[in-house]
Structure formats: C-alpha cells, structure tokens
Amino acid sequence: TGILAWQTGTTESITWISTGSIVNVKIELYLSGILDSELTSGTPSDGEISWTIPFGLSNSSQYQIKITDIANPTNYDYSDYFEIYTSSELIGNEVPGYDLILLIGISSVMILILIRKKLRKK
C-alpha cells in the first residue's frame, strides 16, 4: 500500500478507535518524532475530527498524529507515517482554475468565429 498523502489547505478526517472509558483526547501533529503542533488540546473521544491542514507546513512523509487520553496521558497512540505536501499548482498570485477559464474563453471565441464564417457563406 502507498503512504497516505494530504495537501495543505484541504480538510481531512482524522479517525480513531478507543477502548475503555476514554472521555476526551488531545491530538497532536509530529514531524520526524518531534512535536510540530497541537491540533486540539481536548476533544470528545468520539472517533473523528476534521482538520484543515494549514499552509506553511514542511513537505514531508514523516508526519504522525498522536492521540492521548487526557485523563490518563500514559494512554496514547501514534498513527502510521503520512505525507503532507504543498500544491505546486498555485505559485505567486495565480488564480485557481485560471488555465481552464482561459481555455474555455479561447474555445468560445473560436466557436463564434466559425459560426460567423458559416453565416457569411450563406
């Protein structure tokens, strides 16, 4: 199986299964075994949160999520390693989808030219 890869700016689901009476958990992001950021200091242990991956994170396949039982911090687990990457499609002040808009615009002009030529022949 391939490694899970998430793009900055997207919203992803972090899911987990807990056993016993874990009420609240803390969720943290680790990069190469070092704490990078805290995603939440406490959330109900209902098995899922949504996380919008912030811009500014380093491109790496060495990220892990750590989920810790707040009431008993010795109960924790790490996810498998996964990748976070930044889209190379948006550089500088480019507009998302600009190439598609430009292509549609050019196609529309070409169609109008062909229709005019056809109407002139009649």
Automatic annotation (TrEMBL):
Presence of the UniProt keyword ATP-binding in the record: no
Residues annotated as transmembrane: 95-115
Pfam families, per the entry: Kre9_KNH
Keyword line: Membrane, Signal, Transmembrane, Transmembrane helix
Residues annotated as domain Yeast cell wall synthesis Kre9/Knh1-like N-terminal: 6-84
Protein name (Swiss-Prot/TrEMBL): Yeast cell wall synthesis Kre9/Knh1-like N-terminal domain-containing protein
Organism: marine sediment metagenome
